[in-house]
Amino acid sequence: MDNHFFKNIEKKTGVNMKDIFELANSLQNANFKDEKTVRGVIRRVSQIANKPVSQEMEDKIVESIVKDGKQLDINQISKMLNKK
């Protein structure tokens, strides 16, 4: 994809595409059964999106992914964040 496409996304979302690509690369071999890893991902996404996540919400997301054995579902996490 061309650079213009990504610049448009950055303008519309306020999210730096470099940050998104770095996050995506870090997720490729991440162990989502490891609570520490999942918490790190949640905090990084929160930081990139400039959307704070309370400790209670972080705990719920971690439980959903790690303890309940669910896969990382971005849509589900988004729904949980929007319930704040």
TrEMBL record:
- State the organism named in the record: Mesobacillus persicus
Q: InterPro entries this protein is in? A: SpoVIF (IPR025942)
Concerning Pfam families, the annotation shows:
SpoVIF
Lineage runs: Bacteria, Bacillati, Bacillota, Bacilli, Bacillales
> Highest taxon of the source?
Bacteria
What protein name does the entry list? Stage VI sporulation protein F
